[in-house]
Amino acid sequence: MKLKDKVAIVTGATSGIGEASAKLFASEGVKVVVVGRNEERGNNVVNNIKDDGEEAFFVKVDMNNRDDMDELFEKTIDKYDKIDILFNNAGMAISGPLEDFKYKDFDNVIHTNLTAPFQMSKKAMPYLLKTKGTILNTASISGVVTHSNGMDTTLQKLL
Ligand SMILES: NC(=O)c1ccc[n+]([C@@H]2O[C@H](COP(=O)([O-])OP(=O)(O)OC[C@H]3O[C@@H](n4cnc5c(N)ncnc54)[C@H](OP(=O)(O)O)[C@@H]3O)[C@@H](O)[C@H]2O)c1
Q: Is residue 2 part of a domain?
């Protein structure tokens, strides 16, 4: 229980890798801030964690909205008074032939997967410096391996 009473913000915790990580953190005694857009799934994750006797709460955040991000940090500090871990995990992928890609979809992927983690990390830094905390980022094999009709392939065609 090396992580007992640490405070972790986990983005994209309403499903998949983020949900599993939030539950794993909680099982190690971490107080978890479950972050995502889907309130129903977010509250389910929180309830699962609380049913196991651990601590968590949900904050609805759209990674395209910096006011949402500010509110997330305010609510986290109000409730837990510190932040030890920021896990930038929220992300998305769109597949398809380059000719079908819409500019707005491309912009959305770049914003969600790249710009938002930068913004979140920057906003978290004052708190993480106080606790000597840490930032975790979910990456992808797509950063080093191309897939047919993946956005990585699309980028290569553009460059
Ligand atoms: N699964 C894989 O094989 C794989 C492989 C390589 C990389 N990854 C990366 O791993 C991370 C998690 O993947 P996953 O498979 O667990 O995906 P997932 O089940 O689809 O979960 C994605 C999470 O990101 C959140 N999210 C997406 N866009 C958001 C936005 N604009 N604002 C706030 N939250 C947003 C979603 O929350 P809401 O639905 O509540 O909005 C959801 O909780 C992603 O970054 C993904 O790119 C996954």
A: no
